[in-house]
TrEMBL record:
Listed transmembrane segments: none
Protein name, entry field: Dethiobiotin synthase
GO cellular component: cytosol
Keyword field contains Transferase: no
Species the sequence originates in: Yersinia enterocolitica W22703
Record's keyword terms, sorted: ATP-binding, Biotin biosynthesis, Cytoplasm, Ligase, Magnesium, Metal-binding, Nucleotide-binding
Pfam families for the chain: AAA_26 (PF13500)
GO BP terms, alphabetized: biotin biosynthetic process
GO function term, MF aspect, one: dethiobiotin synthase activity
Length: 83
């Protein structure tokens, strides 16, 4: 699951995670996507998501205004789902 880090993302992520689980699917992990470089309380938001989501954080994508031009795999750690 990818979480766009912005106002309201904690509630949205928790509801999405619950919907995935309610459908009988495993939630293998989540990725934080920084979509606003100036967002206040970014670190606190990530910490809250880590605490509340029932899956491992697999990575954090930094703010990249032209992400389609950059390889993103280096920002992910998929060892938690390789089991």
């Amino acid at each position: 699951m990818v979480v766009g880090i912005k106002l309201g993302c904690i509630n949205h992520a928790l509801l999405t995670a619950q919907a995935i689980l309610n459908d009988g699917l495993p939630l293998l992990g989540w990725v934080a996507n920084r979509i606003n470089p100036g967002l206040a309380h970014y670190a606190e938001t990530i910490a809250m998501l880590r605490e509340r989501l029932p899956a491992s954080q697999l990575g954090q994508l930094p703010y990249l205004p032209h992400a389609e031009q950059k390889p993103l795999a280096k920002y992910l750690d998929l060892t938690a789902i390789a089991k």
